[in-house]
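As a warm-up, study this chain.
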Amino acid sequence: MNRRDRIKAVADKIKQSTKRDGDEGGFRVVVTGKGGAGKTTTVAMLSYLFVQAGFNVLAVDEDPQMNLPYALGIPPGESDRIVPLSRNLDYIEEKVGARPGEGWGLMLTLNPDVSDVVDRFGVRTPVGVNLLVMGTVVQAATGCLCPENALLDAVVRYINLRKGEVILMDTQAGVEHFGRALAKGFKQAVLITDPTFNSIKVVKHSAHLAKEIGIPYIHLLINRVRSERDIQKVKDTLGETLSLFSDVFELPYEERLLEYEPNIIPMFSHDERWPLLREVRRLQETLQRYGELTPG
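Now compare it with the structure written out below.
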């Protein structure tokens, strides 16, 4: 059996042998949009704010570029600390079916000690965010389920969340993950667009797919806003699709972000002065509020 067949077999076994009890007060948020729209920066900012609000946060980096660790404060020179999930196949096989026990907050039934999962599959960032990195994958055709993403889907879906726990997933660019229904079971989606036509079209498609797979709360984030004309362009291009969104957030263009790249956490020292950071905080508070609701 080759490696990709083994990955698929492990994913299938996780789904068959683990018990999905549901989330008791915790919630999941998927963040998506066109490449370059600002997904990774947004996930990093939200992760930090949720930790500051007292949540136990697991950030999942599904993007093959694997930039989320650096946005959360991992120095680029320490990339050897990042151990992608897709490179831990032997360990995953070893742990499948193990009896769950007490461990780091999030309960993963394929492993008796979830802190071990985080240590072996990824890193704990300097700001207290637990990070799970998928690793580089080969893009599948639309609607296909490649073995690597089947594995990620199995692991993320079978984590049982308790009160005060949240999963934030930074996805690959585009709508591929929705085509594979990877985000099924997530309670909220944040769809990010800048004012460019191509970026808006990706969000328009994603909104309909998110609705189709049953995500109850879909939020629109318009990034890099320079004027009211940018906001109006997004809304006009979305047309009737705009009604699918629970809320709309507008992040002003901020040239000073480049001063902090790739680690964006230090910019929170300007929280009270930057409109961008105030709006991100409003998004975090909204996600928290919706996360505490039961979809009707």
